[in-house]
Amino acid sequence: MFAKQKEAKSESDFEVSVPNNHYGEDVETTVVQQHDEVFGDIKEDGPNYRNVGWLGATVLILKSQIGLGVLSLPSALATLGIVPGILCLVGIAAIMTWSGYVVGQVKMRHRQVYSVVDIGEVMFGRIGREVFAAIYCIFMIFVVGSAIVGASIGLNAISLHATCTAVFVAVCAIVGFILASIRTLGNISWLGWVGLISMLSAIITLTISVGVQDRPAEAPQVGPYDSGFRVIGHPSFVEASTAISSLILAYAGVPTYISIISEMRDPRMYNRAMFTAQSLITAVYIAIGTVVYYFCGEYVATPALGSAGVLMKRICYGLALPGLYVTVTIYLHLPAKYLFLRLMKGSRHLTSNSVVHWSVWLGCTGTCAALAYIIASAIPIFGGLVGIIGALFGTFLCIMVMSAVWLCDNNWGRDYSQGTGIKKLLIIFNVFLVVLSAYLIVSGTYGSVQGIIDSYRAGGGTSAWTCADNSNST
């Protein structure tokens, strides 16, 4: 059971610490702008970790979602069929919105929480902290790895495979390291705008392109052809599991919401930002996924930006590349920030500009970037990598953990017998989500792993640390 939290101070409270001096002499003063339960005393001469407004939070939430997921949506709809695909998409959107709402509740009750790791500690103590730390960091770094793969595909497409793919992967990892080393989300939020505009421009351009073309670029260019558009698909178990996992990853930014609300100037504005972002994301996903699949059918590429022919593929990836880099930046920044906070907790260097501060911070971002580079090089299959991240990590962190923490925080064992009708329905709903997520973890992981194995076995399948062009997969 959660311990009762201290009543939080008003977000407008500021503390100023000035030494007494009865002789009128000039003395060095330390001005503490605000005390935060995560970052400690936020000082004038150090980084301001509480500087994200609600609009900036909306953009960061949007960018944490619209990155990888939108590029795999048309392919998932092609597997499931348009009707089951849209129904699954809307259902997952509703579940993830509930999870996002739970994030706000948890943060307001437990102000020391900065990431999923802290939720694990609140629920299960030190053991929970260590287990959740491993899962959280692996998830975030795997997402970075898949974003690096996506960015390397973009560089290959734009340059017509001007050099070895392994070089492009390394370049993307280095760029991500540099951008992720910006210390606060408040200073990264402007990159969120760049990334959001970049990705939306690319997918809108793609949508228009496939709509005006006579037929998909990968379809037979002469004679009649069947696009393969299906109202209801007939996928195998492996194919359906991988497709659903891809849809889950399209909304798997929920773990980032905890860090975003923690760096907001006024966390009470979080729900406005979250509901706005989720509504926009779902509208964009349905519109883009439906249109691209309708016009491309079974000839849709994975990632989807390669569906409109060589020229438009180069244009679309040119527009999307900044957005892919921003995805790398956000998902690389957050696990590095967690490691940094853990290493520097209680130290005066946490909110200073000292050499120790910068050395530890750059060491954290560099380590995470190196691990993401290894993953991107070892599993350079975009679809399979996206599927396994969504199934194994996204489902656990975004659905199972959030439902479990709500149950624990609301005394579910006692409240079911004593609570109101609405409370009982919410308890049943969250228990159902825990069971559903357990099933999706097993089925989705099996399907994604099997898909990766099949790709390696296939003739011409992409291999680890490859120099081959990875922008021509469909």
Give keywords.
single chain; 474 residues; Hydantoin permease; 2 domains; two-stranded antiparallel ribbon
What can you see in these coordinates?
The chain contains 14 helices and 2 strands; from the N terminus they run E-E-H-H-H-H-H-H-H-H-H-H-H-H-H-H. It is mainly alpha-helical and 474 residues long. The protein folds into 2 domains: 37 residues, no CATH class; 381 residues, Hydantoin permease. It has a two-stranded antiparallel sheet. A hairpin with a 3-residue loop joins strand 1 and strand 2. Helix 2 packs antiparallel against helix 7, helix 3 packs across helix 12 and helix 6 runs parallel beside helix 9. The longest helix has 44 residues. The termini are far apart.
Concise description?
This protein is mainly α. It has 14 helices and two strands.
Map the helices and strands.
Blueprint: E1 32-36, E2 40-43, H1 54-65, H2 69-80, H3 82-109, H4 116-159, H5 165-180, H6 185-212, H7 237-249, H8 254-262, H9 270-296, H10 310-344, H11 355-378, H12 382-409, H13 412-418, H14 421-457
Antiparallel strand pairs: 1-2
Physical arrangement of strands within the biggest beta sheet? 1-2
CATH superfamily of the largest domain: Hydantoin permease
Helix content: 55-70%
**SS content category:** mainly alpha
Number of strands: 2
Rounded to an integer in angstroms, the radius of gyration calculated over CA atoms is: 23 Å
Relative strand content: under 5%
Count of domain modules = 2
Principal-axes geometry comes out as: globular
